[in-house]
Amino acid sequence: MSETLTRPETVVQKEQYFSLSFVLSRVLNSGVIMSIEKNDQELKGLEKSIAKLTKTKYVSLFNSYTGAIHGALWGQDIRYQSSTRLNNPSEQEKKFLHWLGITLVAGTHVKLAYSFIALSGSNLRDVDQLVHETGGEAPVLILDFTELGFGPVAAIATNDENIWKKAERLKIFGAFDLQTMWTQEESEPELQPTAQFNYRLSPLVAACVKLTLLRRNLSS
Predict the structure, then answer these.
(1) Which branch of life, at top level (predicted)?
(2) Which of 55, 63, 93, 168 has the fewest C-beta atoms lying within 10 Å of its C-beta?
(3) Does residue 74 fall inside a structural domain?
């Protein structure tokens, strides 16, 4: 694949500068960068925040919108020579699914692969309403936090444990890989994909997004 999927670039508004600088200063002074333990806590903390926000049981984090799409599809066994449906897919989404060998169809007889919310400084305070309006349309909800300004970051939220497990398996150093490193025992090898991808989110970015979500109702 020649390019990473991203939503159209948005300029961070001047009124959001203080919020961005506050979050960055708090996170950079927290010790997240140096501490392996805090690194792990930040990823889990963001997962819990998103699960609470979306009222779902399982959340998987990705370092790009591309990764989240891939995880959502792979988690539902939508892969090469499969068919699926998307609401108003972008040209980039169409190209990515074509690259994966997945056919897009319009008929409602095929289930919707995922629903999607792009969050930015301008709509962050409305996230609860956006989730309420969008959640439940598909087995997976993708949230893209890239436009908050901390770098590419997205997540999938679902109530299906198998979708979550398969999405995590797709990531190098996802939940299952880290567990194997500590225990030296492979868990659920039947879920292992033929290839894994570098989709693991930076704990530093996760910390910034988590704090921004927590402060969303305090922003001006």
Answers:
(1) Bacteria
(2) 55
(3) yes
Task: Spell out the SS3 assignment of 148-192.
Answer: HCCCCCEEEEECCHHHHHHHHHCECCCHHHHHHHHHCCCCCHHHC
Q: Which residue has the tokens 């500068």?
A: 17
**Number of independent structural domains in the chain:** 1
CATH number of the CATH domain containing 189: 3.40.640.10
Is the dihedral angle over the CA atoms 163, 5, 95, 116 positive or is it negative?
positive
* Residue 172 buriedness (CB in 10 A; 0-12 / 13-18 / 19+): exposed
At residue 84, the 3 state secondary structure works out as: strand
Q: Enter the tokens of residue 100.
A: 């994966």
- Give the pLDDT confidence of 45-95 residue by residue, as tens digits: 999 999 999 999 999 999 999 999 999 999 999 999 999 999 999 999 999
pTM of the model: 0.81
